[in-house]
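Last lecture ended with a question: if I hand you only a sequence, what can you say about the shape of the protein? Today we answer it with a concrete record. The protein is Xanthine dehydrogenase small subunit. Below, first the input exactly as provided, then the predicted structure, then a couple of comments.
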Amino acid sequence: MIDFYLNGQRQQCADISPDTSALELLRVYLGKTGTKEGCASGDCGACTVAVGEPDGSGGLAYHNANACIMPAHQLSGCHVVTVEGLARGDALHPVQAAMVDCHGSQCGFCTPGIIMSLFTLHEGQRHQPAPLTQERLESALGGNLCRCTGYRPIRDAALRMGDYPDTHPTWADDPDLPRNVETLSTDATRMSQSAPEAATGYTAPRDLAALREVRRQQPDARLVAGGTDLWLEVTQQLKSLDEVVDIREVTELNGIEETPHGWWVGAAVTFRRLEPLFTEHYPAFAHLMHRFASSQIRNRATMGGNVANASPIGDTPPVLLALGARLALDGPEGEREIPIDAFFLDYKQTALKAGEFIRAIFLPHLADRQLKVWKLSKRREDDISAVLAAFSWRLDNGVMKDVRLAYGGMAAIPRRALQAEAALEGQSPSRAAFEAARAALRHEFQPLDDVRGSSEYRLVAAANLLERLRLMLEKETSHDNNTTEICLDAYAH
Ligand SMILES: Cc1cc2nc3c(=O)[nH]c(=O)nc-3n(C[C@H](O)[C@H](O)[C@H](O)COP(=O)(O)OP(=O)(O)OC[C@H]3O[C@@H](n4cnc5c(N)ncnc54)[C@H](O)[C@@H]3O)c2cc1C
Ligand code: FES
Ligand code: FES
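The predicted structure:
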């Protein structure tokens, strides 16, 4: 049973197959066709809805999400708002009114998705007003494509939406709605392993013991966290998923725990929740998040899913390799811990054994080390890397120590450049040392040619990113105030 609220009304949908998307549930089962399907792959944002979850203080916090790649069963215990749920009778919501007045829509196909992304931004502004900077607007709207209006009028609408009377949707009059949603979301029997639910093939254990048991019983069932990779198998490869185990609600996979040496991040923690930790302790990682997918994806996707997916062009694996992260693996046979270097075996092959899963990822403190991450992709927002470089090192009396250079997009797996590391280890950051490191890259990588870049491009780009590191270090040590690094950043930060 998918038990949730839609535009203030409770919905209980039974017998929904495990691979149904939230978009299909809304459009086909519930007739809410205002939400559109464009790409069905999380890229265009036409299917964007607002998902409200209890905020811990008696209210609901809304985030935007791509309904096309969201499992319908993950709507359970939420309040979903679609474009049909915003106007109050004839009175448009401020976001809609601003879009009309600023001429933010032509063909209108992208418009419901844009409205819903703006709605979540507007909700955020109502609760925590802050300047709508260019960066915030890009972050809010980076996952919404518009092919005919052009972005300036949409941006104008975003900047003006706060000027309109705050017309609440009708459902906002119901003071019991947040409590009712909370009751649903904390209902221990919801989406649990009850017999009728298991019969639909979608299981959502609430704790580690239950997850281990489900894995023991169904070692071949597909795990889902945010679904932002897995659901593409349904929408793009047209696969059926008969058995799905949802790990999002497993308590032990949702913690961020500090230890004297670093943080254990639960595998089900979303990138959105990681932002404060990254901002405070790993600025280079925080920086990367501006380039990672879109707000819709970051709101749902997890680092556990990014690592387990083992894509050679996934963004966090090279960073984790550069940091020297560790993984806590778990399963019916018990727990074990491995360095991330031992996780990626071959293209999309990992060290996970049958029934095993990633429980948590350990991020060591940077301490006196430095971390730099550069992502090269064709588009700035919502694009996959052609090459991603993550470099970590420390300077000890002018000499580079503990050098770790990791790349994505350069091999069948995310990998460290061990020979290039050896060329730099124990050396001052001189031209000669970096020249040797750059030359070593050619021996240790034979990257693929594909739509994102030729093999030669990737080799040249990877070497150039090392040269960028050298220039950055040269600038740091010479206390030079020129704008070299800023110019470099402007191209590919
Ligand atoms: C439009 C779009 C843009 C994207 N942009 C980027 C980008 O810029 N950079 C990038 O790196 N990625 C990007 N991605 C890919 C994706 O968003 C990330 O890989 C994301 O981190 C996956 O996390 P998830 O929680 O959604 O994983 P899911 O899709 O739920 O799972 C991914 C895979 O891992 C398995 N899995 C999940 N959790 C576990 C676990 N704890 N243990 C074992 N197996 C597990 C699943 O069974 C599945 O095979 C993009 C995807 C889309 C659709
Ligand atoms: S339909 Fe394009 S992002 Fe969902
Ligand atoms: S209004 Fe036509 S795609 Fe945006």
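Comments.
1. The longest strand covers residues 387-396.
2. Confidence is low (pLDDT under 50) at residues 485-493.
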